[in-house]
Design a protein that fits this description.
The complex is a heterodimer of chains A (387) and B (237). With 387 residues, chain A is an alpha+beta fold. Chain A folds into 3 domains: 74 residues, Nucleic acid-binding proteins (OB fold (Dihydrolipoamide Acetyltransferase, E2P)); 238 residues; 67 residues. Chain A is 49% helix and 17% strand. Chain A is built from 11 helices and 9 strands. Chain A has a 5-stranded mixed beta sheet, with helices on both faces. A 4-stranded antiparallel beta sheet of chain A has the order 3-2-1-4. In chain A, strand 6 and strand 7 form a beta hairpin. In chain A, helix 3 runs parallel beside helix 4, helix 5 crosses helix 6 and helix 6 packs across helix 8. Chain B has 2 domains: 126 residues, no CATH class; 87 residues, no CATH class. Helix content of chain B is 64%, strand content 0%. Classes of the chains: A alpha+beta (387), B mainly alpha (237). Chains A and B meet through strand 1, strand 2 and strand 3 of A and helix 7, helix 8, helix 9, helix 13 and helix 14 of B.
């Protein structure tokens, strides 16, 4: 509240008519006994009014900022930080927010579209989403003992969103989530989980592949198994690659590279990959890259134990079952080594024999030629002498 | 803006005789105006002794004036002129000429009134006289203070616009002459001069006229005009 000087122009009843220093003629309440011509000080509410206006303005601005920030945060909250794909067939791909909640579908094939009409996934946590998808696929006979592969791929949306990704989104958990619901029903699906980078995601989108398909294609390429990326849309082709020992071995190796210390818990991708392990651990290195996967005939490493219910698989890493696996691996390993050695030896023997034969032939030819020449010479000399 | 309204360097005026002479010459109109008011007749330089007395009083005012006191110099000078003329008439026994300061007649008037002695009561009295005169001037245009309260602009921007317009009207001799002759503002000409919308001028007509009265009659409203001039335009002396 500021003071403003004013001169009293007129007195009338309980009020004064004044002219203030700002040139305003105004009527004010008669507070002190001033006479016409006296200069008085007005407690101008105007100052307070202006002050009030300033405060109201500041408060309004603050509220607006706060509202904008809140609105912005609300708007920002559902920002997609990761992309997850599930290929069974049906195939679908969806985004996930920082809280690990389903945001929206990005791609889906016809089977997925039909299947998803029955469930609402928006806003649901990722574990629930995956469980629902897998359960529904099982119920609709998309997953059965003949077709039991589930390929899951996931990647951060950008390099920056890696840190924002929900912590529970990892291979171990994903594998648990997709295996669990079906295992309860007596079927243990085979799961391949691929962790991809944002750059991989871009490449996959350019190639019109899901993350899982791209991950599989990449693994196949790395394993030296040639396949057209377009064919990966076909479930049969996917299964062919997934069943390929080199690819399996590579997937397993990749998993070890990602986290070699991951605990082996039932139904996890680690366990599965170990169970589905390619007996040739270093297969891709030894394998001729040009060789067709169909040509490679390796014993199927899946044992009956692998097909046991999940509950029975709950064993710590250093168990007897584990050592059995190792034994079996070693045996198969040895067998393959023997085979390869045999093949190599055979080839070497063949080559040596060929070389020896060639040399003998050469020698015989040389000697025969020499004899003929000598004979011809002698005959010529004899004819000369006779002449 | 009249020369005497400019910011004066009082220190220089007090010491530099030439500057003081120039200032006295410039202020002759004011001195004559005040003296004529006191004497109730038009005074002429060289003919009336009252003007010499008034000039001496004005010169004393320059010596005695202290800028920092917050009193307009012309108001102070006017009081000194009045007091000197009252004393002059007392000596001449022509008291009938003094009507405004009847209350001062009974007691001895110190014509050498110092600025420190220029009391609040005297300033109020001066202002009251101006207000009385202003009220009469307004009544010529059928205006009252109540009218001015009603039309006084409330918003700062519009008030500043109208104050600027009133100032231009008051300081333009041709326009102001038309006001004095016809008793109304030449709106079209004023709108052209000020480039303010005619409707705005119409709405603020009474206010413009009242303020212009205070500014145009610079010698009469030494106090009141300070209320309608911006601080940077105010007359310090």
């Amino acid at each position: 509240m500021s003071k403003l000087k004013a001169v009293v122009l007129e007195k009338s009843g309980t009020s004064y008519t004044v002219l203030d220093r700002e040139g305003t003629f105004r009527q004010v309440k008669r507070q002190i006994n001033a006479e016409v011509g006296d200069e008085i000080e007005l407690n101008v509410a105007r100052a307070g009014f202006w002050g009030l206006r300033v405060w109201v303005g500041v408060a309004a601005l603050f509220l607006m900022t706060l509202t904008s920030l809140m609105g912005w945060n609300l708007y920002q909250a559902p920002t997609a930080v990761a992309l997850v794909s599930v290929d069974i067939n049906p195939s679908l791909q969806f985004t996930v927010d920082t809280q690990g909640r389903f945001l929206e579908l990005q791609n889906q094939n016809e089977d997925a579209r039909q299947m998803l009409t029955q469930i609402a996934l928006k806003g649901k946590p990722i574990d629930e989403v995956l469980e629902k998808i897998v359960t529904l696929a099982y119920n609709q006979n998309f997953i059965n003992p003949e077709h039991n592969w589930i390929v899951v791929g996931y990647s951060p949306m950008t390099d920056k969103s890696i840190e924002k990704m929900p912590k529970e989104l990892n291979e171990l958990q994903i594998s648990n989530w997709v295996t669990g619901p079906i295992a309860k029903k007596g079927l243990t699906p085979e799961v391949a989980v691929f962790t991809l980078t944002p750059q991989d995601r871009d490449l996959a989108q350019k190639g019109d592949l899901s993350l899982g398909e791209f991950g599989l294609w990449k693994a196949a390429q790395k394993a030296g198994v040639i396949t057209e990326s377009g064919k990966l849309k076909d479930t049969t082709e996917r299964v062919r690659l997934l069943e390929n020992p080199q690819v399996k071995a590579l997937i397993k190796a990749d998993k070890k590279e990602i986290d070699p210390n991951l605990p082996l818990t039932p139904g996890t991708s680690m366990e599965k990959s170990r169970a589905l392990d390619n007996p040739i651990e270093k297969g891709p290195e030894k394998q001729n890259p040009n060789e067709s996967p169909s040509v490679v005939k390796t014993p199927n490493p899946r044992s009956e134990k692998d097909k046991e219910p999940v509950a029975s698989q709950k064993q710590p890493p250093e168990t007897k079952a584990e050592s059995d696996h190792d034994k079996m691996n070693n045996q198969v390993h040895d067998q393959v080594h023997e085979k390869i050695n045999d093949q190599v030896n055979e080839k070497i023997n063949e080559k040596v024999d060929d070389k020896i034969d060639d040399k003998i032939d050469d020698k015989i030819d040389g000697q025969v030629n020499d004899n003929i020449n000598e004979k011809t010479k002698n005959e010529n000399e004899r004819s000369k002498k006779s002449k | 803006m009249p020369e005497w309204e400019k910011q004066r360097q009082w220190h220089r005026l007090k010491e530099d005789l030439e500057a003081r002479e120039d200032f006295l010459a410039e202020s002759q109109t004011f001195i004559r105006h005040v003296a004529s008011q006191v004497c109730f007749r038009t005074l002429e330089w060289g003919r009336d002794d009252e003007l010499s007395e008034a000039l001496i009083a004005f010169n004393d005012a320059i010596d005695l004036f202290v800028e920092d006191k917050g009193v307009p110099f012309l108001a102070y000078a006017r009081v000194l002129i009045k007091r000197r003329l009252i004393d002059y008439y007392r000596k001449q026994r022509l008291r009938q000429a003094i009507s405004l300061d009847q209350e001062d007649i009974g007691r001895g008037i110190d014509i050498h009134l110092g600025i420190d002695e220029y009391s609040l009561r005297e300033q109020n009295s001066e202002r009251a006289a101006e207000i009385q005169q202003f009220s009469k001037a307004l009544s010529v245009f059928q205006l009252t203070f109540q009218d001015l309260v009603a039309v006084s602009p409330k918003h700062r921007d519009s008030r500043e616009t109208l104050l600027r317009v009133a100032r231009e009207l008051a300081l333009d001799p041709d326009l102001w002459l038309q006001v004095e002759r016809k008793g109304k503002i030449p709106m079209q000409a004023l709108a052209l001069k000020t480039r303010v919308n005619l409707k705005v001028l119409e709405r603020g007509r009474k206010y413009i006229l009242a303020v212009a009265l205070l500014i145009a009659n610079q010698h009469d409203y030494v106090y009141l005009r300070e209320y309608v001039l911006r601080q940077d335009e105010g007359v310090k002396g």
